Amino acid sequence: MDPSADSVSPLEQALHAARSLVLADLAAGQVAAADVVSMVEDSVIQRRWWVEQWPEGAHYVAGLVAQDVQDALLERYGRWPLCPVCGSGDPHALDVEPELGPDPHWVCHLAGVKVAAVGALGSASGGTSSS
Ligand SMILES: [Zn+2]
């Protein structure tokens, strides 16, 4: 008997968390339009298949979904998320680090800084969306 059998599986929890973290970052950048949300859904569907093949990868899905959405946005809209740290120079996107690992962060490679955890971009860019 598995005492956790009637609760949501860790896989589903990880996918749900990844989805909400990336949606939070999209909302922080004010790009959470309907078609962008569907990009997140598409990524989650693909990553569900991936993590079913490799359950240890459940900790990595947030970073992977963030990168999937970043790639999809680059094709349709342009760079996302724009770096909030460097005030001058050409606008540039943040990168996810580690690309394949737990606890993913947005980093600016120009400034060499960690900007925010994936899911916490809103608090890193001035917190204008609070309250
Ligand atoms: Zn930067």
Secondary-structure blueprint of this entry?
Blueprint: H1 10-28, H2 34-53, H3 61-76, E1 95-97, E2 105-108, E3 113-117, H4 121-124
Antiparallel strand pairs: 1-2, 2-3
The structure holds zinc ion.
Zinc ion (ZN) binds next to loops.
- Rg is 15 Å
Total domain count: 1
Distance between the termini: 45 Å
The total count of strands amounts to 3
Q: Please report which band the strand proportion falls in: under 5%, 5-15%, 15-25%, 25-35%, 35-45% or over 45%.
A: 5-15%
Helix content: 40-55%
Order of helices and strands: HHHEEEH
Please outline the major beta sheet.
3 strands, antiparallel
Mean pLDDT comes to 88
Number of helices: 4
Low-confidence parts: 127-131
Class from secondary-structure proportions: mainly alpha
Q: Overall 3D geometry? A: globular
Bound molecules: zinc ion
Strand order in space, largest sheet: 1-2-3
Q: Any overview of this molecule?
A:
- With 131 residues, this protein is mainly alpha-helical.
- The protein has one domain.
- The protein has helices spanning 10-28, 34-53, 61-76, 121-124; strands spanning 95-97, 105-108, 113-117.
- A three-stranded antiparallel beta sheet has the order 1-2-3.
- Strand 2 (105-108) and strand 3 form a beta hairpin.
- Helix 1 crosses helix 3 (61-76).
- It is globular and about 50 Å long.
- The termini are far apart.
- Mean pLDDT is 88; it is low at 127-131.
- It binds zinc ion (ZN).
- Zinc ion is lined by residues 83, 85-86, 92, 108, 110-111.
